[in-house]
Design a protein that fits this description.
Radius of gyration: 15 Å
Structural class: alpha+beta
Shape: globular
Strand order of the largest sheet: 4-3-2-1-5
Number of strands: 5
Oligomer: single chain
């Protein structure tokens, strides 16, 4: 399984009562063994560290699938028309989580 930064993956649970979680890959360690992801649906999500082996195993047994179409990537309009308050909020949020996302890799 090929993984790249910004890719979306969905965890599939055998138990249908559990919510399926979609995560975005934020960072991949230089050796490719540690991956930092974040739940794209959770309002207060924090980055989580997973290991490549865990992703490969889940993919091989169909507990994980790659999302081909990124519905979250669609901006409401051209990038230059996004309100400044929104870009400031985004940049502030990234400045807060970036050290956490890259701490262990």
């Amino acid at each position: 399984m090929e993984i790249i930064t910004n890719m979306l993956i969905k965890w599939i649970s055998e138990d249908d009562s559990k919510q399926q979680v979609t995560e975005r890959i934020l960072h991949i360690s230089p050796d490719g063994e540690e991956i930092i992801l974040i739940d794209v649906s959770a309002k207060n999500a924090l980055p989580v560290r997973r290991f490549r082996e865990e992703l490969d195993l889940a993919y091989s047994v169909a507990d994980l699938r790659i999302i081909e179409v990124d519905a979250y990537a669609q901006l409401p309009g051209p990038y230059d028309v996004i309100e400044e308050k929104h870009t400031k909020r985004r940049d502030k949020a990234w400045s807060l989580i970036q050290p956490l996302a890259t701490r262990y890799v």
